[in-house]
Amino acid sequence: MTPLVPRPSAELSTDRHDPRDDWPSEARALADHLTAIYGDRDPLPTVAGGWCARQRSRHTRRAYARAFLRWETYTREAGIHPLQARLPLADAYASYLETAPTMRRVKGGRRNEMTPTGPPLSDSGRAQALSAAGSFYTYAVRVQAAPASPFTSINRPLIDPDHSPTEGMLPEETAALIETAHTWHPRSYALVTLLYLLGPRVDEILSLNAGQLGYDRGHRTLPLTLKGGKRKPVPVPPLALDALLTYLNGRRDGPLFATSTGQRWTEPQVWKHLRMLARRAGIPQANSIKPHTLRHGFITDSLENKVPLQDVQDAVGHADPRTTQRYNRRRRRLDDHPAYALAASLAVRLRPGDA
């Protein structure tokens, strides 16, 4: 048998199957974007696309592609090819991320129009950005496209293992949000109840289709694709099921959550809609609430209701119970903070009218 000899993409014969056509759409989009910049004879588009394609979940592929493009833009503006980057440039990039603005959608602008006016990445966001870039170079070294990773010895942000950036809500505030969604629209009510009662990540719900509502041993189920690509059926409790069936109104095709034109509801649209509902419900952090806030509530409220930690951990798909417990510790750090006891002690010592 005559072995196939690797050739630049421009030399691929039209009568041969291009394996890149089998990549997930996120990997193909990343490769196409880089090809438009570097040309089809440069190895970077294929290496980056192959690395992206290896990620198990759609959510990870999208996040990694965004992170890589941020790094690629930085290297290109510095006049250095990404496959020739070294540790000093990676160190400079880590410092750059501390103050660089993030992209924010233009209010009232064209669809998907973005502007760099958002706040800098959080410590965890910077750690994830550096981790994604490091993951790319681990792959690039493995396929002999780069001599070494410039991120191997990078100084990464120190992350408090007990810190969760998500702002929580009181159970009464969650109930107010759900009641507001109920009065607003059946779709709103179905989404909010599923996010709270099942505790999924928002992309796990939005990626579902209406026909995937199933049945298993007396339970109505939805097949969530968890982080890492693992698929797991989860039961839909009666309250959420009633809300979902009312919204679907017999529909069994198309996206589970669709817009008025039949398109799949997107994460940015859900974020915007959720904040509108939160403002109407009078939630204090309405302008910063996000779908993950309801996942946070699922975890903390379940633990407060004495659901075993291992059951909550399994429900949300955490590999480590410490990740699950982190949400609860954040709440207790606030509830049990010494400031409250100290303020109460001070109040009884102050003259009337001074407190």
Automatic annotation (TrEMBL):
Any Pfam family: Phage_integrase
Chain ranges of the Core-binding (CB) domain: 42-141
InterPro entries: CB (IPR044068), DNA_brk_join_enz (IPR011010), Integrase-like_cat_sf (IPR013762), Integrase_catalytic (IPR002104), Integrase_recombinase_N (IPR010998), Tyrosine_recombinase_XerCD (IPR050090)
Domain Tyr recombinase residue range list: 164-341
Chain intervals for the UniProt region annotation (Disordered): 1-24
Gene3D superfamilies: 1.10.150.130, Intergrase catalytic core
GO biological process, one term: DNA integration
Organism per entry: Streptomyces aidingensis
PANTHER family: PHAGE INTEGRASE-RELATED, TYROSINE RECOMBINASE XERC
Keyword match RNA-binding: no
Protein name: Site-specific recombinase XerD
One of the record's GO molecular function terms: DNA binding
Ranges of compositional bias, category Basic and acidic residues: 13-24
Keywords: DNA recombination, DNA-binding
